[in-house]
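Next comes the chain:
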Amino acid sequence: MASSSDAIAPEQPSPEPGEGHFSEPSSSPPAVEEPGPPSNRQGEEAEANEPPLTAAELPLTASEPALQLGQAVRLRHGVPYLRSAEPMPMLRPPDLVDREEVGQVQELRGLAQVAVRFRRGCFLLDAADLVAISES
């Protein structure tokens, strides 16, 4: 028979400093940071020394093809719907434009949107959904 002094109690890990221990609250309130963007002094100084980029120096991404006004384009793949390029745009069914149909770029808009005139109307499409057709 084992005596009570021979019984080994399972060891419990001691809590890490700062865990499970509560200190008495201090009389001063916690410091509150001012709202606003985080300050990065080294980054601000480096940006201040560099001249701003011109439009010609801005990096181009591969996802945005360089389309020009009047350029012939075709749909890269079928789209779920078409959006008319009017002051009050409407959603139109996708079967108004075939994938093989060639359209002409009418307007370049922000956020990589392009207004393209097809046989059945002018529609607003993402530039990534279009393929430029060579002149030859």
In short: Residues 6 and 74 are 86 Å apart (CA to CA). The longest strand covers residues 102-109. The two ends are 100 Å apart (CA to CA).
